[in-house]
Amino acid sequence: MASPSKFKISCIQLAVSSDKSLNLQNAKNKILEASKNGAKLVVLPECFNSTYGVQYFDRFAECIPNGESVKTLSAAAKEANVYLIGGSIPEREEPSGKLYNTCTVYDPEGNLIAKHRKVHLFDIDIPGKITFQESATLNSGNSLTCFDTEYGKIGVGICYDIRFPEMAMIAARRGCIAMVYPGAFNLTTGPLHWELLQRARAVDNQFYVATCSPARDTSASYIAWGYSTIVDPNGQILATTDHKEDIIYADIDLEHLKTVRQSIPIYNQRRFDLYPNVAENFKE
Ligand SMILES: NC(=O)CCC(=O)C(=O)O
Predict the structure, then answer these.
(1) How many whole angstroms separate alpha carbon 152 and alpha carbon 134?
(2) Which of 24, 92, 177, 221 could form a disulfide with 72 if both were Cys (CB 3.0 to 4.6 A apart)?
(3) What pLDDT, on a 0 to 100 scale, did the predictor assign at position 32?
(4) In whole angstroms, what is the distance from residue 92 CA to residue 67 CA?
(5) How far is CA 91 from each of CA 157, 258, 265, rounded to the nearest angstrom?
(6) Which of 231, 167, 143 is nearest to 194 (CA)?
(7) Of 76, 78, 2, 5, whose CA–CA distance to 44 is shortest?
(8) PANTHER family given for it (predicted)?
């Protein structure tokens, strides 16, 4: 059977609390709702199962694949019959005990088909606004991630990873039709860069970009921006929301992607002879 040329993606902007069981149950209900509304690929937010913050990662960390979050997500993907990009959870690696911010991905049979450990840790210091240092407790992942579906290849990054265009570009050159980022920007960098970065990655690479944030909780120590969004290969916003709990939907249309790439053919116009290896070019 020919691959379908269009399918629905959905991003669940989940209200996340400090009660893990409640978060997991809420995520499962919303995954089933998205599936009933036609979604074939469902996305959850960064740190969807627990409170986001360096002081919480150790307390909430789980082993993969033997933790309760993986069990719940696998069962939910199977029951909903969807591909599921399971946001991220704090992961504890055994026996090293090292912690990671990790996204797990499931196929519609509930098999764990990919795992992405956040590569670029969120270490920033904007004086008077926000200081955050994920590297105080987390380790960074060492590989780039994409997975196959019958619709096409999908790339995965987590939040701060979106600031690094090389990662998205490699995904595009590996044939990805979309890059998906579970993420939790904040009230300082959200209004500054959240939408801009998504549209930039989409236009750079002429593919779809989707982001999925937790809903905003003003009582949390880290307040998420919200505004989960889906962008098309022209950088146009197909679906977005505000800061409250919500589910957004859009079609990923492979004919549209092809048309955009044919009309402005930058994909084939790159001068790799001038920039074969960007890092090498910095050397004097
Ligand atoms: N959780 C994160 O990685 C936040 C990234 C962020 O807010 C940014 O500005 O980048």
Answers:
(1) 32
(2) 24
(3) 98
(4) 10
(5) 16, 37, 40
(6) 231
(7) 76
(8) NITRILASE-RELATED, OMEGA-AMIDASE NIT2
pLDDT of res. 282 = 67
Dist. CA 262 → ligand 1 center (Å): 33
| Sequential DSSP letters for 50-87 | S--STTTHHHH-B-TTTSHHHHHHHHHHHHHTSEEE--
Protein residue with least CA distance to atom 1, ligand 1: 184
pLDDT digits (tens, 9 = 90+) for 135-149: 999 999 999 999 999
Q: What contacts 126, CB < 8 A, 6 or more positions away? A: 188, 189
Q: For ligand 1, atom 10, which residue shows the shortest CA distance?
A: 160
Which token pair is 25? 């149950």
Distance 248 CA to ligand 1 centre (A): 21
Containing H/E element for 238? strand 237-240
Residues with CB under 6 A from ligand 1: 46, 122, 159-160, 163, 184-186, 189, 193
185, amino acid identity: F
Q: Ligand 1 mean position to 226 CA, how many Å?
A: 12
pTM: 0.97
Pick the atom of ligand 1 nearest to 192's CA: 9
Q: Which residues are identified as catalytic? A: 46, 118, 159
Neighbours of 39 (CB within 10 A): 24
Query: Do 176 and 8 contact (CB within 8 A), yes or no?
Result: no
Quote the tokens at residue 103. Answer: 């996204």
Kindly give, in sequence order, each residue whose CB lies less than 8 Å from that of residue 107, ignoring residues fewer than 6 positions away. Answer: 77, 83, 113, 149
What confidence tens digit (pLDDT) does each residue in 229-238 have? 999 999 999 9
Residue nearest to atom 7 of ligand 1 (CA): 185
